[in-house]
Every structure is written in C-alpha cells, then in structure tokens.
User: Fold these one by one.
Assistant:
Number 1:
Amino acid sequence: MVGNSRITTDDGAHVSICKKAINVTMLVALLGVASCSHKLISHGGETTISVFPSKKDFDDLMSMKSQGGVAGMAAGIRENFIAKKVAENTPVKVLASDSEGNEVQILEGPEAGLRGYVAKDNLD
C-alpha cells in the first residue's frame, strides 16, 4: 500500500520506517563528524602554526614573501601582527579547502572557536 509508514513483520510487530530512517541518518551524521577532525602540524622545528584571518591575507603575505628582500622581511613582520599562532597538534575542523590551503575552525585549546586559513602543508 502506497503511503503506509509501517512495516508488519512475521511476528506481527510494527516497525516505523521513519524511526529507522532517523536512526540511519544519525549514524551517518555521527560518522561524518568523527571523520572531520584533523590536526595542525608544523615543520622545521616550529611549534606553532600561523592561522590567517582569511585566504586573501594568506595570499597577500605569500606574494610578499616570494618577492624576497625588503618585501619578504616586511611580510614576516606583518605575519606576526595578522596571524594567530596556534600550537601544533591542535585539533581542527576543515570548513573548506583549495589547492593552497584550508579554512579551518580550531576545536580545542585557548583559541577554540577561531576560524581562519592555514597552508595545506600545515594540516594532517
């Protein structure tokens, strides 16, 4: 019968299709949340990772660094002012990704809740 929201089993028990669908949906959602957690990783003896306010700030800074010389030094100073330093191994949730990096949300620690952009090689 079309529109019937119950299935009758051999022993006469009624099982709600809706209830089963909700249970399956919740299970899939929980598995999805569990797999969204990543950690920040550092390189070259560093113990913190720069989390930039936006991709634009990240791109501007990387462009300045690639120029070298005075612009490269200015980029290093600017990074100290605009980027938050977050400890390595800090759990994050990836909100969006592109070829250069990831928009993340910090999940634990003093910066919990912070959203920002990190280089692709700073994420496990």
Note: DSSP finds three helices and eight strands in the chain.
Number 2:
Amino acid sequence: MHIGKLASFRRVGPRTRRAALSASALILTAHLSGCGGDGGGGKDAGTPPALTWYTTCGDPVCRGYTAPAGVSRCTTEMAGASCTTEGHRCDPMDSCNALLICAKSDPKTGPGGCPISRREAKQEIAYLDDNARSRLADEIQRTKLATYRYKTGGPLRLGFLIDDQPLSMSVDPSRDMIDLYGYTSMAVAAIQQQAKRIAALEAQLTELKQAASCARPSVPRPRK
C-alpha cells in the first residue's frame, strides 16, 4: 500500500478499517475466481462424470409389472443416486417395467434410447408412400408369431423371433432386440392399407348397387 494512503488508513476508526479490509478480501476472491482459482472447492475439468442410477425406457405401452428375467430386485437403489458399477441393473418393480441402470449419462437421451416423436429431434425424415406401406403390410402378413418362455424363467410370452426376419425394420441389430416402436409402426402401415382396400371395396359395392338399380326393368302396373 502507498505510504500516503497507509497514513490516511491509520487515521480512520477501527470500524472503517475492518470494512475496508473486508471489501479488499472480497475483491481479491473475485479476482482469483475470474482467473481460474477455485478457492479449494472447485472440481478439475478433467474429472470423469460420476456414475448415477438412471431409469430405462420401460414398455412403450404400460401393461402392468412383469418380473424381468435375470435382473435382481432393487433394495436401496434410487434414480438420481450415485452408484459404483457401470452397467449394473436392478428391478424397482415399476408398473411400466422400467429398470434402474448405473451409467455416466441418461441412456434414454442417447442414441438408441427411448423413441422421441418430435420433429426437432430428427433428421432425414421421409414419409412413406403407398408402395412402402404396402411392402410393410405384406411383411406383417408374413410374420410368424410364436409363444415362448425365456430359458432363465418368466411368464409365457407372445412375439416373433429375430431369427425368422433379421433384416426387418422392426429389428434393432445393434442391441440384438426387437424395436417395438418400429414394429408398432409397421402394424399401423398394415391397418392403413387395409382401410384403403376396405374403402375401395365399399366404393365398388356402391357402384354395383347403383348399376343394378338402373338395370332393373320396370314392371307395368295392371289396369283397374
């Protein structure tokens, strides 16, 4: 501190000196923070993200709880709490069959996560034409449905096997599982094609009725 300013500082009262020192300390702290100092409480930017319990997607349509095969029940685990083993899962007995998974980030928001239907989250959007819907409807017709049980246990289930149609758009090959959102969309395409055929048949039936009515010969009424 400059000598002249130091002399002036000594002439002021103790309360004023304490206030000035406090202000100086605040300015110094702010300066250190702005220059990257962390004051002892900051985190290193290179620290990897902490492992956390996240919920999985669960069923596309909630149908009540079904115990998953090969997944133990949760005990004290809770969504948002920290965890230690990445990839570990447990069953919270959710009514939509969502599980808890230990991960560095929310798996629902990453690639292959839960389906998002908003346009803002998508690219390369291409609406299906009539030919594409017809192909999907034909594939649905050829799908072999089967009932089965998992070798690890569980209830009797209904579905199809990836082995029967591995190239289907309803299959997620990277995770070796069925894409239920894609499979449901294929079923919608089949319904749309059936509705179109029904409408065409109804139109033909109406035309036939009109033609039959016009072709019917008139019967003369007997004279009284």
Note: Residues 1-10, 19-44 have pLDDT under 50 and may be disordered.
